[in-house]
Every structure is written in C-alpha cells, then in structure tokens.
Write a structure and sequence with these properties.
alpha+beta, Immunoglobulin-like, 4-stranded antiparallel beta sheet, 22% strand, elongated
Length: 208
C-alpha cells in the first residue's frame, strides 16, 4: 500500500484549511525526517498569520475583505500542496513518518478490502426471451460479473457461460434466452484487493 497525504482542500472550510496549516507547521518545525522542505516554516507561518487576520477581517468587511481572505487561503493551499509532495517523497512510504509531519494520511483500507459475497435480490421477466437481475449494490465495485446455466428437467445444470459484466446493480438484462427454459444465475462483484468478490448463491428463474 502506498501512503499518501490527504489534503481535503476541496470541501474544507476556511477554518479547516487554517487548522491543517497549523498542524503542519507544528509537525514539521524541527522535524528531523523533513530537514530541507521546499517551503520554509517561517514562510508558512507568515502565510498562516496573514490568512488568520484575513478571516477575522472578512467577518466584518465587504467584498474586498472577502477577496483578500480568498487570496490568503489560496496562498496557504499552494504552500501546503508543495509541502505535501515533499512529505510523501521523504516519508519513504512509512505512515508514522508521514503523520509526524502534521498532514493527515489517506485512508486506503476500504479499497484494500476484499468484496463481500454478492447477493441476487430478485429476477423478473422482461420479455419472453429476456430476464432482469437485481443484485445488492457493493460500494466501489467496478461492475458485476454474471454467469448463466440452463437447468434441465431433472434439475441438473448445463455448462456455465459468462453473460457479461454490468455496472448497474439494479438492472442487469439477460437476453438471448429460450422461452419455457429455466436458468440458474450467479453473480460476483469486480474490484477490491483480490480483483473480485465471492460468487453469489445460485438463483433460478423460468424464462417466457
């Protein structure tokens, strides 16, 4: 797993950006893991002071005060972005070292976990030669791989054939079927740390 800085500027409030900056200033000042930052701590501290004053002035000022605050915010964000790239490089993919800088780290746990077993919620008839599957949605799945088997009169299963990979868990149309035949379906989610999740339990439905 590669550890990266999580800046979170896009949705952060002005106070949120200021807080990140203050934590980085405290974490990187005198930190032996980051001896030669591209932005000196003196410059960062000055930018943060100007930003803090601009926030206070904007509370009682007009459009000019707002523009001054926004410019100060932009300057702080640019400085922190440069420092973030430096921290990622100097941390050598060591999470505790990265966190010692005061920057937060991205949480990659969800993306690294294997997917749970897929579940077919429902199968309905669309036409005489087409069925529609609905499966339980799995967050961050790239798609749902479906296989189909014909069920014989004695309940035996024919050869398994891949139907395709679909992205809409609520509507998976399966066409080219034979009216009156019974089909068994299984589904698995595509993605996660293992490439795919476990196959669902088989669910059967008559076509036509």
């Amino acid at each position: 797993m590669i550890h990266r800085v999580r800046l979170g500027f896009r949705n952060a409030s002005v106070m949120g950006v200021l807080t990140i900056g203050e934590k980085v200033l405290a974490g990187m000042s005198g930190n032996p893991s980051f001896p030669d930052p591209p932005v000196s701590m003196e410059i960062l501290e000055q930018a943060l002071d100007e930003f803090s004053l601009a926030i206070q002035s904007q509370a009682t000022g007009g459009s000019l005060a707002t523009a001054t605050r926004n410019n100060a915010r932009r300057k702080v964000m640019e400085l922190l972005s440069r420092l973030a790239r430096y921290v990622e490089d100097k941390s050598n993919n060591d999470r505790p070292t990265l966190l010692s800088s005061g920057f937060p780290a991205r949480n990659r746990n969800r993306a690294q976990l294997p997917f749970p077993k897929a579940i077919i919620l429902n199968i309905t008839r669309r036409t005489s030669v087409q069925l529609n599957l609905q499966v339980r949605a799995i967050p961050i799945a790239r798609g749902y791989h479906v296989v189909c088997m014909e069920v014989g009169p004695d309940g035996g299963l024919g050869p398994s054939r891949g139907v395709g990979v679909f992205t809409n868990s609520r509507s998976i149309p399966i066409g080219g079927l034979t009216p009156g035949k019974v089909y068994s379906f299984r589904v698995r989610a595509i993605g996660g740390s293992t490439g795919s999740g476990d196959w669902s339990e088989p669910v059967s439905q008559r076509c036509g």
